[in-house]
Amino acid sequence: MRIFVSSLFHEGNSFSRLRTGLASFAIVRGKALLEKVAQGSSGLAGGCRRLTASGAEILTGVSAVAPPGGPVEDVVFQDLLSEIVGEVEAQRPDGVFLDLHGAMITESLDDPEGVLLAAVRQVLGPRGVIAVSLDLHAHVTPAVLESADIVVACKENPHTDYDLAGERAAALLVETLQGKVAPVTASVWLPFIFGAQMETARGPLAALHARRCQMMAANPQLLDISIYNCTTLVDVPDGQQCITAIADGDAQLAQAAVEELAALFWTQRDAFVSDFMPLHDALSAVTAGRIARPAILGDQGDRVLAGTPGDGTAILHELATRWPNLEAVVPITDPAIVRIAQMAGIGAEIEQPLGGTLSSGICPFRSRWVVAGLGDGRFVQDGPYLRNEPATLGDTAILRSGNLTVLAMSLPGFTQDPAAFRSQGIDLADKDIVVVKSGYHFRISFETIGPCLVVDTPGISNYRPGLLPFAKRRPIHPEDIISRPALTARIFASVAD
Ligand SMILES: [Zn+2]
Fold first, then answer.
1. Are the beta carbons of 33 and 67 closer than 8 angstroms?
2. Which residue in 8, 197, 328, 487 could disulfide with 433, CB within 3.0 to 4.6 Å?
3. Cis peptide before 294 (omega within 30 of 0)
4. pLDDT at position 496
5. Segments of the chain with pLDDT less than 70
């Protein structure tokens, strides 16, 4: 078996003014890709390991991974699509394994993954098998399920199991090519949106996943059930919750599974209420010694991991005005201040407003800063989430003012990983507060450093009904009053059948 592999990872935010350009993508090919996945935790890594174990020959395509953010520039997506499709056409593989996030948007496309998969299907032909691993926050469309034979999401948020999703998708790809299974997919979409209680191990989603596990254990003909929580910040026509089941040749079995889970999910639609800690309470508890130091605070309103620019200053303002004794480090995206710091040099003093220039409704933070360090922003992630993936913050500057340290970044970056700070010369051990632009995944990377809390800060990634001007993603609960949907499954047979 000759299997072509490639990955394209980006979660979109329709409400960001930024565009995601080529500079935000860490791109590797060939030997570098194989080195990256050897110790990695991505879906691509899990998929490649399983394909190798199955004796398949891996044909490497491009891997392009960017942090979540505003729409990808059309030219960047088209170039990557052309490269992937051109390689599939040239190499004529038996199967294609793609690791995609699944919630990308571009300047002109609402469903670029659907476009990519249709193009891959066209050159691969109907007999080739396409398997895809996705983030569970994907925006899964009929176009995706029509072109791919096997689509599998990770099951956990925080995402500790991207590699297992890749392994499962790759295993089903191999077994389909060997004629051992005949995957048929059923899918139900649910028109509601939520932005809190998105962990899968607790809260409303836990019961849903427990039932999913029961179903899988009870029936070996169910090859996968994936529960998608479409990312909150994409404004796309069919941006709905989605449940898919893959069964071995039994459409009715897959249909029954997803329809039961969908009915349960719908009853939970109003249970996803915010339980984030007020910022004042968190800082008060750290000061009083009720929370150990360093406390790691996820900035819920300005999560780059949900695609915001990362220039929110709410925590900086609070620290400076009310908690000046706390030694804190805060990452802020501000390319202008990085350039000024570079020109001034290490040790220089600069006076420049910080942050609040890329997002709407955010006040810049004003202070006099000492330039304590400069960096190139490059690092390799080493936490459980996307381990061994190269990443960039763009050029960086370390700025000091009183007890505040700011990691000023030129690009929104993956700060859910301690390597983002350490690589730029910041010691976390001597801090009282470490702020990260993440609401979920930082927990699995920082849990050995300090207690992890998500704080209730303003910003578009702290979803409240009526906050965001959704135009295409309507009607949808709770933005609109809608009646109970039919929750009837659609069936997607393997293209090769
Ligand atoms: Zn996700």
1. no
2. 328
3. yes
4. 52
5. 494-497
